Amino acid sequence: MNVNQSAPPVPPFGQPQPVYPGYHQSSYGGQPGSTAPPTSYGAYNGPVPGYQQTPPPGVSRAPPSSEAPPASTAQAPCGQAAYGQFGQGDVQNGPSSTVQMQRFPGSQPFGSVPLAPVVSQPAVLQPFGPPPTSAQVTAQLAGMQISGAVAPALPPVGLGYGPPTSLASASGSFPNSGLYGSYPQGQAPPLSQGQGHFGAQPPQRSAPPQASSFTSPASGGPRMPSMTGPLLPGQGFGGPSVSQPNHVSSPPPQALPPGSQMTGPPGPPPPMHSSQQPGYQLQQNGSFGPARGPQPNYGSPYPGASTFGSQPGPPQPLPPKRLDPDAIPSPIQVIEDDRNNRGSEPFVTGVRGQVPPLVTTNFLVKDQGNASPRYIRCTSYNIPCTSDMAKQAQVPLAAVIKPLARLPPEEASPYVVDHGESGPLRCNRCKAYMCPFMQFIEGGRRFQCCFCSCINDVPPQYFQHLDHTGKRVDAYDRPELSLGSYEFLATVDYCKNNKFPSPPAFIFMIDVSYNAIRSGLVRLLCEELKSLLDFLPREGGAEESAIRVGFVTYNKVLHFYNVKSSLAQPQMMVVSDVADMFVPLLDGFLVNVSESRAVITSLLDQIPEMFADTRETETVFAPVIQAGMEALKAAECAGKLFLFHTSLPIAEAPGKLKNRDDRKLINTDKEKTLFQPQTGAYQTLAKECVAQGCCVDLFLFPNQYVDVATLSVVPQLTGGSVYKYACFQVENDQERFLSDLRRDVQKVVGFDAVMRVRTSTGIRAVDFFGAFYMSNTTDVELAGLDGDKTVTVEFKHDDRLNEESGALLQCALLYTSCAGQRRLRIHNLALNCCTQLADLYRNCETDTLINYMAKFAYRGVLNSPVKTVRDTLITQCAQILACYRKNCASPSSAGQLILPECMKLLPVYLNCVLKSDVLQPGAEVTTDDRAYVRQLVTSMDVAETNVFFYPRLLPLTKSPIESATEPPAVRASEERLSNGDIYLLENGLNLFLWVGASVQQGVVQSLFSVSSFSQITSGLSVLPVLDNPLSKKVRGLIDSLRAQRSRYMKLIVVKQEDKLEMLFKHFLVEDKSLSGGASYVDFLCHMHKEIRQLLS
Ligand SMILES: [Zn+2]
């Protein structure tokens, strides 16, 4: 109690506060604006009258198989690429169509029919592949810049391209390169960038590159002020020239000699482009390197403008350009720049609306009144004042919230504030919790709520004088008045049934059917549990965990075990009536580990023996969860079930499933059924679990289809996790499984939780994504919530916002700690509001945007055809960028692609989402894999989605061995691989070590202890432990990558040109994918076309 302490700025928080008699406003679930007397918390999950069948916002499940598909699945041809050319800045997948054509001969889904108003050389294009559908063609046409081509400075060299002369006259004919049609593969409207603009000219195939500098005046057609009316074809998009403060003007890009390297066959790497830092030199501070080449005539006739649209004009000489992958925005560069610019200083949260450093930057956070970005990240830190503006921009307003995020050791956990019996102080009307933004008035006797403006009395015990600025003099003594994040101890009013909770329990439920026994899983697991039980989560300095444990085994029937400490041997009780599950024992089922250690150890020794000769192959599933939930109910506690399950539950029982996998549904309107549960039984069960605070973690060990989409329903709705180990074999997979298991069992979990996000007047939370259940539109119910899980919340306007007051978010999480303490964790965040669109675009965070968009799309596949979902994403992205172009960018020619600085990676990242396994699966991706990935992504934080969609590719031998730091990453493209090097690739779930065929013998010896490349075992998952600097460095790097991720990444060694390389290439996301996903360059071209279409 230091109410009246004089205030040293950051004093001892956490003392119990004075009790204010009569303050009983503790209803958690109060509705904002409600003036009704507080409802008691106990009701929140009591008899829930009518759980609505609203699609639970969180119903998404689906994570990536972290298991590498078996080698046998790699069937597609690989190794066609000319590896000798890798690592060269000029051998891009973009510009040199020649190279590209050679590389993916079999994978050209890009159509090639001449587009409608095509004037010439249809035949030339034939080699590209099958024609696109007519719909595609039409779409591709519209808005395309079909201006004349120019005689190339150099004759194009390339398979499948027509003679240069025909190209020169190819007015209006734009070789279609496929899905995204309008641009020939690898050629795009040339982008030249300065200040985040990409000066794109109408695509000119085989034209010499041109560097268009942004400093050049846009010399396109007549400019029209935008927003004053529709733009006509051919008109530039001027518009009110909004300043672009985030665009530092950049020096004109370097111009290289005309035609240099661009149209010729790949040659040796130009000195400037090391494969380690592709594009690095060219892209600084948002100014992207130019296409290599001069820009003859730039600035004068820019015919593209006059032929903008689908009305081909007469061919005009045009400064030819092509898209240079080194000149388009590079994720690597953006990440590097942010690390360099923002990694050294702590991020101090005192200022409203600050954009935090990127998730890929290492930084410390100092809480000075707003929640750390580790807890909350937003798509934009500057919200449009009106819904009209928001609609115009189409930028989703969302926050990715990780309420229990783990912090680095240097940062303190949130202080716990104890207000005693009175409980936390809240606004009477909207129930928001006391926070630094509440305004004290009338000398401190009242406060005005920052969320709903209601004036509240300050209870006498909480009274404090104000200083001359109107601030309470004890502001810095109290976390809730000075920090963005803190906790309150909850009173009994916040507890179910008005009773303080018991400590939670863990129940281990082990499949002992034939497959589980035969694979060695049961023996391995039982052995591990003997020691793992000593590491159950505990709180603070507690000597031992308060969590009790119980054990069940099952196949078609369930076996409960009495492990009471007084017993000499465990006792088994069999329940064979799985249709009407009950728990046959209460006393002795859930026990304290240290008290019952001997009995537990004996049980874990006996289980593998008892079932060693089992022939039972059938399993049940729903009754197992039911049993665990009933056991927790009987014990009157929350808790977690750990299920270890191997097969499709086909035994006669509730929740019985059939094999309904059907790959023929892919790309049909029925594809969505693959993601939907095949029975509603699991949803019903999940609701019961949530009501009991029973969280379910599922470890799957399938040898074939197990219907992950259905089995993961309960984990998904209860805030649990799913792990999948396909074709589990102890020798190959035990490290991964045990590592995941240890982490999962030990992690701190909040149980029986409810999360509510309150907002200041003008916006409100309208949609939620994650692993949870919702029975109404505002309360996110989580049977369990761990430090890895996020909830993504979308906001919409319901009124006008005010620039001066900004917008506030308060996330309140009520939960039971591992020790059984009921607490409230509060996170506050203040955002700016703007009346200028430019301010919105200047304060966006693309990584968070992608997190939201991926979750939005992954939920969408439940109800819509995948193609529709993909199209929606593309359209939205185009709208976002077109709005910027129209309203914020300086006037420039229509042929230029101009991206906002903060969103310059939006196209590349979005493309990764579009071609991910859920939205565009390759032949080797199983239905279960897709459901698994879908479920995983749903709970991912921003750092996880970032690396998951755009993997990190690290060259290992380019930097000095002594260097302690991680080598700088290179772009995820085959072009960046040098066959003389070794690379690590990781995406948070998978980890590959790619070995180039020409790697030095010494390196091979040092890493693998064999004398030549050919002797390296493909598919190896463990590197030999060798006593040399390189081996130590690589193994150390692998360890450190694993430590950064929430799941263990199994290593797979891939040799260049080996069949396993197919798997690896799947993750080179800047390239065209075998499943038809566009390359980055092609997608950017497509996006440009879409944008222009919107603008025209
Ligand atoms: Zn209020």
Describe the structure.
- This protein has 1096 residues and is of the alpha/beta class.
- Helices cover 23% and strands 14% of the residues.
- The chain is built from 26 helices and 32 strands.
- A hairpin with a 5-residue loop joins strand 26 (807-816) and strand 27.
- 60% of the residues are buried.
- Mean pLDDT is 77; it is low at 1-320.
- The site of zinc ion has 8 residues, from loops.
| Molecules bound to protein | zinc ion
**How does the major sheet shape up?**
7 strands, mixed
- Straight-line N-to-C gap: 65 Å
The count of DSSP E runs of length 2 or more, i.e. the number of strands, is: 32
Q: Quote the average pLDDT.
A: 77
Structural class: alpha/beta
Helix segment tally: 26
Poorly predicted runs are 1-320
Gyration radius, in Å: 30 Å
Question: Helical proportion?
Answer: 10-25%
Strand content: 5-15%
Shape verdict: globular
SSE topology:
Layout: H1 97-103, H2 122-125, H3 134-141, H4 164-168, E1 193-194, E2 197-198, E3 223-224, E4 236-237, H5 303-306, H6 331-342, E5 347-348, E6 365-366, E7 376-378, E8 382-384, H7 387-393, E9 398-401, E10 416-417, E11 439-441, E12 446-448, E13 455-457, H8 479-482, E14 485-489, E15 505-511, H9 514-518, H10 521-532, E16 548-554, E17 558-562, E18 571-575, H11 597-610, H12 622-634, E19 639-645, H13 681-692, E20 694-700, H14 708-711, H15 713-717, E21 722-724, H16 730-746, E22 749-759, E23 763-769, E24 780-786, E25 791-797, E26 807-816, E27 822-834, H17 837-842, H18 846-860, H19 866-887, E28 897-898, H20 906-914, H21 927-938, H22 942-949, E29 952-955, E30 982-986, E31 990-995, H23 1001-1008, H24 1029-1044, E32 1050-1055, H25 1061-1065, H26 1080-1095
Parallel strand pairs: 3-4, 5-6, 8-27, 10-14, 15-16, 15-19, 19-20, 20-21, 31-32
Antiparallel strand pairs: 1-2, 2-28, 7-9, 9-25, 11-12, 12-13, 14-27, 16-17, 17-18, 22-24, 22-26, 23-25, 26-27, 29-30, 30-31
Helix pairs in contact: 10-11, 10-16, 12-13, 18-19, 18-20, 18-21, 18-22, 19-20, 19-26, 20-26, 23-24
The protein binds zinc ion (ZN).
